[in-house]
Each structure stands twice: as C-alpha cells, then as structure tokens.
Amino acid sequence: MSTNTPYVIDTTSETFEKDVIERSSELPVVIDFWAEWCAPCRTLGPILERLAEEYDGKFLLVKANTEEVAQLASAFGVRSIPAVFGLVDGRVRDSFVGVLSESAIRAFLDRLMPTPAETAIKEAKGLEATDSQAAEAKYRSALELLPNEPAIKIGLARTLLAQDRLEEGRALITDLERRGFLEPEAEKVKAELTLRGQGQATGGVEAARAAVEASPNDLPLKLALAEALAAAGQYEAALDLCLELVERDRKGVGESARKTMLAIFRLLGDAEIVGDYQRKLATVLF
C-alpha cells in the first residue's frame, strides 16, 4: 500500500523495536495499523502519507499490516482498523480509530509535536556529554517555560555537577526533596554530589593516600581516602576500603563508611558491582 520514503516506512515484527520504539526517542512516530482488504484503510493511508511528506520529517509514519504483524496489533489492543497510534519516547501519547477528517488528523499530529520546553530538554540532553554549559543554557530556557518540571531540574543539576558547581546542584536537589521523594535519576545526582563534595574536602586521592601512608592506623584518614577514591570514580577501591572500616569500627568511622557505600550504590544503580558489595556489606553487618 505504501512506498518507503524517509518519512514513511513499512515495519515487521523483526524491525518494530527499531522502527517504532527506538525512533520515537528521536521524533514522534505514528503507527498506522491497516490491511489490504480494509476499504477505510485505503482512504486513510494516502492522507497520512501525504501529511508525512508535508510535515517534512517532523514525524515518522510507520505502516503496520495487521496480516503480517498480528501479534503487535494485539499488543496495542487493536480491534478494528484503521487504528492509528502516536508514540513519543516509547509511549503512546494519542490514538484514533477509523477515518477522520484531514483537519482532525492534523490536530492529532500537532498534539504529538514537541512543545518548546520539550525541544529545549531534548537539545539539552544531546549537549550534556559534550558541552555542559550549552546544556545548562537549554535547561534554563526550558525551566522558564516549565518552572515546576522535575526532569528539567534534574538535568540542570547534572550539568552543574559536570561543571563542579556543587552548591548550585545541591540546591536544586534539595528543592526537589521538599516533595518528600526523589526520582531514581535525582537520587543518582544527589549521590554523586555527596561523593564529589566529600572528595573535595579530602584534597584529592594523592594527598589522602599520602596521609594514610604516613599514619596507616588512622581510620578517619582511611575514610578520607575512600571518599577521595569514590569522588575520582575509583569505586571498587573505595568500596573495599569502606568495607574494611565497617568491619573494624562499626559504630564509629564505620558508620560514615557505610553511608559512603550507600551513596556509591545509589550512583551506580544496577551495576554488577553493586550487588556484590551489597552482599559483602550485609555479611559484615549481620
């Protein structure tokens, strides 16, 4: 029914994840569930294809023949066709069934288009790895449009962290904590802020290591070395040292060491090393 173009493609069960879910993180994706025998589909399809060309890459139209992707149609709850779904970031944002007027279809498509704030957020995320200052500017422009949006504040805190502006980043996380909870990503940022702040206080890994070598039995100095290692991203070495301190002085320096381990766990999330050291810590504590 359709000819593949940059803006209109046919999908299969094998390519659906790439065609729809992955691409929807880049731009809105419109899935048109249709079949050759469906007369309304033959009416709707050309309208969608023409609009895809007219919108010039603002969305991707993905054609899904229900005779070939029956399981996918079932997963979307399709009971009659044509059925159209608009996805953004892997989630269905809007949908309709049957043939709508062209003006109604345009309204549907416009609801999928990113808002100025969403555009700024996406651009900021793309800049974080290469230009934290430019990313900060984008997040701040988005925050002016949506001053209460947690995702913007979290992203802004990340960019401030990347610039070693810890106090400003901490203020944003503290503001988010007033709600009584933090999103997982905010917990990670908070953990890194904590570790980075502790690391700054130690003077760095080399200074902390030299201090321990001069006084090898000084447990607070060992804790400072563990904090410096964590701030430098040497997590396994930091966890080993913290575990030793928990074993040696559970209610003293060991308690601070335990908290440092927990901060590392929050930062690393589901990394394999986290499970390993959680088990080791539990063994020591219980």
UniProtKB/TrEMBL annotation:
One of its GO terms (cellular component) is cytosol. The keyword ATP-binding does not apply. It comes from the Bacteria. Keywords: Disulfide bond, Electron transport, Redox-active center, Transport. GO terms for molecular function: protein-disulfide reductase activity. CDD domains: ybbN (cd02956). SUPFAM superfamilies: Thioredoxin-like (SSF52833), TPR-like (SSF48452). Gene3D superfamilies: Glutaredoxin, Tetratricopeptide repeat domain. Residues 1-114 form the Thioredoxin domain. GO terms for biological process: cell redox homeostasis; response to stress. Pfam families: Thioredoxin, TPR_19, TPR_20. PANTHER family: GEO12009P1. This is Thioredoxin domain-containing protein.
